[in-house]
């Protein structure tokens, strides 16, 4: 809006209020050469101003159709200003030069073709969304006037509207040329930054925006785009700096508050991120993305009431998405409001009676609900069985169904469901853990071990490495594979060197693998840390007997 404010401040002049009396006296004193020079100059200005006044309207129509309200507002003031220019030159020609004759002979053929043919043709083609014709017309204008910044700018904008990669490359070339032709113009630099951003050349886009801000550091819009570009570069600190500058210029930019919240969240500054998202939705209540982030942060911060409020607003704003109602139901369940959870999901089911996600959520609620009635488990199994029967059932849904089967005493059915769950992508990590425990109970140690190993590969987590390695080792021993047991326990011992359980299990596995030297070293290490440890004392005695 900066250009519009400037237009209001400086655009109050009136061509009719200008006194031309002294100009008339000066004109009378000029000789024929001076008069011819002035007439030529003014005639060319007059033709150009009439051309701009006429040709701006199609451009305004395009901008309005694209919903670019700030540019539309400025261009209307621009049109008003150009109309006053036409009136000014016409008054001078009528009242000072008293030019009654046709002045068309002052215009060269190229000048006349540019303003009377090429530019109107290009802008009308743009208005009618005939981008190919518009590009041809602008190219004709450039051929006539290779130093025309506006023609390069308009052709670049037309290429940009077409949007594919080749056209964006062409747009960037035109914007660079326009910027070079007028180093004081900001619009080509902004357009260049936008085109480079669309091409995902974020470093160069940032350079273009910074060049713009070097000329005009009061544009909140371009400062925000610089922040967005820095965010895409993963330069979070620079993004936060730029977004802070943008918000100091315009604190009502909901997008800037939202992006600032995203940056702060990545910086693990959750309370500050919450504040930024709250500002965003206060300015733009319908910003779904900001409300989703708020709900997620509130949940992470255990602010259950506020999480639920955001989810309910999202469900109201986005009524056609069943997932919104499901999210509200699950939030009620997490808060222990089981009846409200069932009621919310039941209401969603009435609207979408065949939606598998609702059945999955209902099954999960019935499964997690504290049970004093076996009917709850029956309802969970019934809802989840309906989802699991579909070839499109997710890993998560199949895992929940397997949980219900395990709790209902059907371990074999649960194992079959989990086998399917571990082949559906993305795999629910919980499926692998439940698969391992179920298979082990059913006497399938190989299946159990494979599931545990795959769980570690999927989660890449070391938090539970020690107990998992001990379990894998125990299964390997059952499979008469002590060497695999040694490998896993060695890995766990390296990650948790003070864990006596791991060292004791490692020593036992090394003994079973026949590696007495390694076992003796492990036992010595354990006894050094805990001389009275019964497991290591027993292992040492066992080693001693084996030596005899």
* Total count of strands: 0
Sketch the major β-sheet. Answer: none
In CATH, the homologous superfamily of the domain at 217-318 goes by the name Tetratricopeptide repeat domain
What is the name of the CATH topology of the domain at 217-318? Serine Threonine Protein Phosphatase 5, Tetratricopeptide repeat
Global shape: elongated
What is the top-level CATH class of the domain at 217-318? Answer: Mainly Alpha
- Rg value: 37 Å
Roughly what fraction of the amino acids lie in strands? under 5%
Low-confidence stretches: none
- Helix-strand string: HHHHHHHHHHHHHHHHHHHHHHHHHHHHH
Rounded mean pLDDT score? 89
So, CATH architecture of the domain at 217-318? Alpha Horseshoe
- Class by alpha and beta content: mainly alpha
Helix content: over 70%
**Count of helical stretches:** 29
Instruction: Tell me the span between the first and last alpha carbons.
Output: 93 Å
């Amino acid at each position: 809006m900066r250009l519009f404010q400037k237009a209001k401040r400086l655009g109050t002049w009136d061509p009719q209020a200008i006194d031309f009396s002294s100009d008339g006296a000066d004109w009378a004193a000029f000789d024929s050469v001076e008069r011819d020079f002035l007439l030529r100059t003014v005639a060319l200005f007059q033709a150009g101003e009439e051309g701009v006044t006429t040709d701006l309207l199609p451009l305004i129509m395009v901008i309005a159709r694209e919903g670019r309200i700030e540019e539309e507002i400025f261009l209307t003031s621009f049109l008003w200003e150009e109309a006053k220019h036409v009136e000014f030159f016409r008054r001078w020609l009528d009242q000072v030069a008293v030019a009654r004759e046709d002045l068309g002979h002052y215009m060269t053929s190229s000048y006349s073709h540019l303003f009377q043919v090429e530019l109107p043709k290009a802008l009308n083609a743009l208005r009618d969304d005939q981008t190919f014709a518009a590009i041809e017309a602008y190219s004709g204008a450039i051929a006539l006037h290779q130093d025309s910044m506006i023609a390069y700018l308009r052709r670049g904008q037309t290429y940009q509207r077409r949007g594919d990669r080749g056209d964006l490359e062409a747009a960037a070339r035109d914007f660079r040329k326009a910027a070079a032709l007028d180093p004081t113009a900001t619009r080509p630099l902004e357009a260049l930054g936008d085109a480079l951003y669309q091409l995902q050349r974020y470093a160069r886009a940032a350079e273009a925006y910074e060049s713009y801000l070097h000329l005009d550091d009061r544009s909140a819009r371009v400062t925000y785009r610089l922040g967005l570009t820095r965010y895409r570069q993963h330069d979070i600190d620079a993004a936060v700096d730029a977004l802070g500058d943008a918000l100091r210029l315009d604190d009502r930019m909901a997008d800037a508050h939202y992006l600032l919240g995203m940056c702060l969240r990545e910086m693990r500054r959750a309370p500050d991120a919450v504040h930024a998202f709250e500002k965003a939705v206060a300015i733009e209540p319908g910003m779904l993305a900001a409300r989703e982030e708020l709900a997620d942060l509130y949940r992470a911060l255990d602010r259950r009431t506020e999480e639920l409020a955001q989810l309910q607003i999202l469900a109201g704003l986005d009524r056609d998405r069943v997932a919104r109602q499901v999210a509200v139901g699950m939030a009620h369940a997490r808060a222990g409001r089981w009846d409200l959870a069932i009621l919310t999901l039941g209401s969603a089911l009435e609207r979408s009676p065949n939606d598998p996600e609702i059945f999955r959520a209902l099954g999960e609620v019935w499964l997690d609900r504290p049970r004093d009635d076996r009917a709850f488990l029956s309802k969970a199994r019934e809802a989840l069985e309906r989802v699991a029967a579909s070839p499109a059932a997710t890993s998560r849904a199949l895992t929940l169904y397997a949980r219900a089967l395990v709790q209902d005493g059907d371990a074999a059915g649960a194992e079959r469901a989990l086998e399917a769950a571990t082949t559906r992508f993305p795999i629910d990590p919980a499926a692998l853990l439940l698969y391992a425990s179920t298979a082990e109970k059913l006497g399938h140690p190989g299946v159990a071990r494979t599931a545990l190993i795959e769980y570690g590969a999927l989660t890449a987590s070391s938090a539970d490495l020690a107990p998992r390695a001990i379990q894998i080792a125990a299964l390997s021993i059952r499979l008469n594979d002590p060497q695999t047991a040694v490998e896993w326990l060695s890995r766990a011992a390296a990650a948790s060197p003070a864990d006596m359980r791991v060292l004791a299990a490692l020593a036992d596995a090394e003994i079973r693998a026949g590696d007495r030297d390694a076992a003796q070293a492990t036992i010595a290490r354990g006894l050094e840390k805990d001389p009275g440890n019964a497991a290591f004392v027993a292992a040492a005695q066992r080693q001693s007997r084996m030596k005899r």
